[in-house]
User: Fold these one by one.
Assistant:
Number 1:
Amino acid sequence: MTTVTPEPQAHDAGSFPVTQDLAEVRFLTGISIVVPTYREVQNIPLLLERIARLRRDHDLTLEVIFVDDDSGDGSVEAVQASGHDWARILVRTENRGLSPAVIDGFRTARYPVLVCMDCDLSHPPERIPQLILGLNAGQQFMIGSRYVPGGSTDDDWGFLRWLNSRIATLLARPLTQIRDPMSGFFALRKADFDRARDLNPVGYKIALELIVKCDFENVGEVPIEFRDRVHGESKLTFREQLKYIQHLRRLYLHRFANAMHLAQFLVVGASGVVVNLVVLSLLAAFGLPDAICLAGGIGVSVITNFLLNRRFTFSYAKNGPILRQFAGFLGASAVGALVSFSVSMMLRTRALFDVAFGLQLAALCGIATGMIFNYLGNRYIVFRKTHVRR
Ligand SMILES: Nc1nc2c(ncn2[C@@H]2O[C@H](COP(=O)(O)OP(=O)(O)O)[C@@H](O)[C@H]2O)c(=O)[nH]1
Ligand SMILES: [Mg+2]
């Protein structure tokens, strides 16, 4: 992670020193700026005006593509009225939503550098050259960030809105180390975008989706002053925020497939321990002999473990032949169960030590030993490494 720090005076939005580096931006290939819009008719001319100034000042080759979800509020006319031949608007009527709109815009972009930004003037277009300098310096993805030194949000961000944004960012931390992955202001190369596979953006967080699915490692941040919108309304609803949780789960499964399976397997195993202890304590309460209590606890927990693993951990196999799967599972657990039972009984009957263990403690020790056997059996027998054939 790198932070590309702008020149100190660049913090006052709008003014932008043309240093040696920034001058270089002129020689870069063209930039396609994609702006998802929904009911932004008032903001379109204001944004175009600022981009026009930027284009002039830096002699940039660029196009602006508004991707509108059929707002019907005069947005199309507003773009046409601007008279800029480098600005156009796509009107979508299907698969509505911010992220799909951005992806559609990127697909129709004609230049090798892609920029995405909001239409509501929250994102300063004057920072675009710095995003591009980051790409030039070897970054794969550059993001305009509120949370790196020099970045800020408007003062009237209420505590709840701030907290919400910070929690959302924290939940994404295992996926990316950048400070502001929630930002909708970013730049990347079209060639990298074209290589992205299984893009499946649910909701708002298109930058996060791209960083994870494109496996970007070099991501840089440029501080921005985030301005609250003056015209129109935010479309970030509570429903969108719920979709974010769903989006995160998919991204975690994509990035950590093996670890997610193991974690689910362990959670199911832990639930089995609880089931085991509850069942054996119930049977003991009826005054049944220890052997029956221990066997009952193991038997019931093997069944619940099987059902839960089939439903969650290995959910891809949940429609397979259940009896055959159960037989396989029993075979795999049999050794562990037998060890668990024997160890518990030996602890209980003083066959191992001089003291007799309590029933539950004996059961827990048995379970722990049985699990080690289960693991070793799977590791070295069921899933052993096969010999390399010549
Ligand atoms: N095409 C399209 N654009 C959208 C949609 N929802 C929001 N936008 C645009 O995406 C940008 C960010 O949305 P905004 O409502 O400002 O979200 P906020 O900044 O998180 O409050 C703005 O330019 C919106 O006009 C949508 O469903 N389709
Ligand atoms: Mg906004």
Number 2:
Amino acid sequence: MSFSPADDPADGRTSEPTVRYRLGDAGPAVAEIRGKLARLDLLESEVETSVPDLDAHFDQACDRAIREFQQQRGLTVDGVVGPETYGALEEARWRLGDRILSHSATHPMVGDDVAALQRRLVELGFDTGRIDGVFGEPTARAVRDFQHNVGLRADGTCGPGTFKSLDRLARTVVGGRARDLRESEQIHAAGPTLPGKIVVIDPGHGGDDPGKVAHDLTEAAVVSDLAARVEGRLAATGVTVYLTRGVDGGRVTETERAAFANSTNADVVISLHVDGSEDRQPHGVATYYFGALVNGHSAAGERFAGLVQREIVARTDLRDCRTHAKTWDLLRYTRMPAVRVELGYVTNPDDAARLGDPDFRDVVAEAIVVAVQRLYLPSELDPPTGALRLSQLTP
Ligand SMILES: [Zn+2]
């Protein structure tokens, strides 16, 4: 089964112009960026004037500040202000109470105020789903639950009355672990066996977007082929598998892929990518999960990423570039543990030779299936890395 994108993308940000600002640029947009960084205390405050500084410069200090911001937020750290970083700067300016918060199914509200609201609710024992700064249905449900409990009208909208109650009830006890415990509990409740589980496999790119291209390899095609190999193995163990795109479908945005995964009620999501670089040197495999220094973290995602990464490293000779927390849209907007594998660099001759080899792809597919199984095994049954064989999983 594959996913055809809706006419109206669920996320308005996809239509933003793809203007990029970087070191050396100047002008009013740079002034605005500097202003946002200053308000976040990442850049020294400039003299407040009512006239915008028309030739503000994107200087070394601004470059450092943007990189620090990207690091904090789990974004790709490149010093470039593109749509993703600009969107994150926009979200960072909201403080809880600045605006009325409510749920919109088509254009969910996002921002630091939403994350702050989620943290408060979780500390008070309400289940908001993952703390991710996105006002989705689970957060609306938690707000209604909270309102009901404190005797407010349970409309799911956070206005002055709700903010006042939240302030009054804010406990000094930190209960942030509650969320992590719930995620682990869900995995435990799903049981140790694979049959009946639902897995979404997301081959990156596709349509008119080939992804990284080098050494006669195209990322979109490599990950499509790998997805089919993982799909076949999972299906053989009794897992229901959905792919976010077909081999020759159109372009699908990251938020559309996440919305599709949520619609299937999948247990886990595995996004497949291949990396690339300006030069030939960088090589190796890395796995990413949802998280950042601010605005949330998925403990189950981190554990799953660790299993995928360790199984791939144990079974191949790819360099171990470890696991990392990121806030990329697919990781952020999915409601279940999600990982993104960047399987080697097409731009590196050795990695490219591996990626072009069907046997190598089979080994990686097996590693991924074993990692899915290990996520559900209770610790006393969990085998050492590299030990579990596919033949032991087939019912
Ligand atoms: Zn990619």
